[in-house]
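Per reviewer request, we include the raw input and output of the structure prediction for the construct analysed in the revised manuscript.
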Amino acid sequence: MPTPLTVVLNLQSLDFPNITNDITVFVSTQKNPTSIVTSETDSVPGHPARYWNFAGLPRTNYYVEMWEIDSGGAKLTRLAYFNVVPDSLMVYTVREDEQIKPGITPGMDVGGTEFIFDGGTVQTGGGGSSTYKQWTYSQTDPNTFLTYFSGVPAMGDSTKVDFVLNTVQHTVTVAYNNEGLQNYIKNIRIAMQAFTGWKTLIDASGTSGGTQLYGIAGAGTSATSATFTITSGNTTLKKPDYRGWNINPERRNAGGTQERDFEYSWDKTTGHFILLQSGDKFIQGEFWNIDFDPIASPAGGSDDNSPDAPDAPVDFSIKNKLVTANYTISKDDFGTNLIVEPAGGYMELTLPDPLIVKEGLPISISVFKTSICCVKIKGTIKFPYGASMFLINGESVSIYVFVRSVGVNEYRYKNDKANFDGVGRIVAIDQLSILNGLPLNGFNANNQTHARLLQYVQQLPANQKVSYANWSNNVTMFSDTDGSSFHVPNRVGLYARGASGTELAGTRLNQMMVSHKHSSPSGSGSGTPAPFGRTGLYGKKSWGDQDSDNDWWYTNDGTEIAGAPQLNPSGLIGNENRPNSFLINQFTLL
């Protein structure tokens, strides 16, 4: 059987300054995702950006997860999750350019002349390469102090300052983060300056016997002093692994592309790099760009001879989860699609504490049912449309966490497709029914199934809705709930008119005709037939004379008179008042 091929996983992570627990990266195969192949833990305070290197792994598909871990080793928050698949077969293996920096890249020390990048480990901190120390401290008077520091700090170093400012005791602790001695001392001074009351607090610098010094000078208006306690810690870091690669280094700050076997030597078998020019060394603040020559790969992809070879291609799709009843969302559900299909007309989803959810990682929630339904999302969300967020049939939303400040996490949302700002709006359409709308026919709506519309009704002014018991006297308005249901308006057969002034939307206006005049026929004699009826009144003046025996006659109501010419256009006269109009079905949106 051929010797199994191997791969190297080189990962890079950003900083996690707000996480105080350890961070661990776990690697497992696609074939056995619950069996951890290898892992690495980062315990550096502040968790600065770094590289993770896993060499010599069987060439197969992998799952990689990054977790925040508590002191007992329990997983708290998943910070990253992705798949790794080796390159396809019969192609050149390529590697992206990498930038390395003395004092930052593990194994590349400031002042050194060589490095071995073989994926091994190095110790940094007080037990490793740190030479950081306090050089001098002086107290020229009770209110003034001056201190200097020297050396090269390393990751893991920290400085605790117990200082008295105007007789008041304070304490700050500042960790080194690869910023160099000068900037590190400046950061300590900035941390001290956060406390008010300084007369002066400035950076200082100087030399002593050729040693470069950086310091802090402080003064208060009364007793002021400081005690600096330096702690050097050890951190185990993995070096990059350049073995097997032909490299082309370029010194970006000066020198440009380096000439092999003149300015440097390189052994790709051991990963050993040496500067050859006399006096040349790695300098603080410079960086190198490393270009890798492509390697002809006789075999890529997963190695079929490996016992960990996958049974099927890796699935890169976002995972889906189906729920049909009340469900408490976990922090691990973020980064997935939640498919919600309520078994009944109403269900609830409960969000976890936002403090345990990875910032910016969304969960997509989609609702579907063949009939009307309502899903309440329980949790404090920055939501402008009411105290609660509801989704109904066919809608979807994405929810994620925004970290406003340390310890202040907020749920925010992205409206993928939801009618949050249209609830209660009236729409007119020819269809007899619409999705997520109720006809304005007095429908008795259910509190749960129509919970979002009820929330809208409850936000209406008190004089624009009526009690459930009194709704029959005010059917053109919404009603409040009786505890289980509420009424939508009944506006069938009514025309809408814009409210103005003190008029209230929803108020019914009964039909009315403005007063007007008609011409009247004249007649004589109480026995004379009146074409349109008579009043029964007489003894009134007619053309100036008293008339004691003739009634007033009614005028015509617009109907046609047999044998007379047509009075009005056909169809004009009927049993209601209306303008030219057409029929339409009206609904209120849920």
